[in-house]
Amino acid sequence: MSSTLVVHHLRVSQSETIVWLCEELGVAYDLKCYDREQTLLAPEVYKALSPLKTAPVIEDVDTYQPNPEHIKLAESQACVEWISRKYGQGRLINKPWDAHWKEWLFWWHFTHGSLQPALQMKLLTAALPKDHPGAKVADSRIEHYLQLIDERLGKSQYLVGDDFTAADLIMVFPLTTMRAFIPMDLGAYSNILRYLKEIGERPAYQRTFEKAETKLKPMLDANPPSLFSM
Questions:
Q1: pLDDT digits 0-9 by tens, 183-225
Q2: What pTM was computed for the model?
Q3: What pLDDT sits at residue 230?
Q4: Over 162-216, what HEC string results?
Q5: Could you give the CA distance from residue 178 to residue 110 in angstroms, rounded to a whole number?
Q6: Engineering a disulfide at 125: which of 62, 135, 169, 215 sits with its beta carbon 3.0 to 4.6 angstroms away?
Q7: Which of 29, 27, 36, 21 lies closest to 79, judged by CA?
């Protein structure tokens, strides 16, 4: 069955989050998958989809406008908001009158505002000596952020109370698949490991990997084998 919503998924990338969202919401979508080149970069056909040249990318018909138009949208949080608001009646996106609104707002922005930039710094400094200032800053920030996440998950089932939200949806990629590029041992963080185990048991998460990936398995363990040597 054809849908107006198309999800362009670059395998082993954070566009898995958008596939997972559609599965969680029960949204009809057309899935188009692309493999990375030997350089690990996206193929040119994927780069051509968005000015950012990165995943994720979705296509849809903008029915919010008087004259509907075909759109392409990038950026993970933008794609999540678009799909959640248009197709999910706002599910998974907390409102100011919801319980834990302040906490949700913080964790919703924390992943892309703090955690992923630190991991990107780690990737960029991987070839430097461990005592290099840049490498030390990256390691220090990552350790601090993981401690914050672990402490939070020691207080509730999910990041925001006991309800799964879009904050969890965004958080899981850097704790799992991103470790294909940036090895990270989570053995010291028991609450994060409990959280990832429960995420892995969600039927929608399992369907995501069945539909969108050919080789990648969910990287939910403390120290899974790295897929790539960077």
A1: 899 999 999 999 999 999 999 999 999 999 998 999 999 998 7
A2: 0.94
A3: 39
A4: CCCCHHHHHHHHHHCHHHHCCCCCCCCCHHHHHHHHHHHCCHHHHHHHHHHCCCC
A5: 16
A6: 135
A7: 21
Mark whether 105 and 46 lie in a shared domain: no
Q: Residue 218 is which amino acid?
A: P
Q: Quick one: 65 and 138 in the same domain? A: no
Own/partner contacts of 36-43, CB < 8 Å, gap of 24 or more, are 36/10, 36/11, 36/12, 40/181, 40/228, 40/230, 42/10, 42/13
Where residue 221 falls (left for φ over 0; alpha for ψ -120 to 50; beta otherwise) is beta
Structural domain boundaries enclosing 54: 6-87
* CA 206/CA 36 separation, integer angstroms: 22
111 with 183, same domain: the answer is: yes
pLDDT at 124: 84
Query: Is residue 108 domain-shared with residue 159, that is, in the same domain?
Result: yes
The answer to whether position 126 is within a domain reads: yes
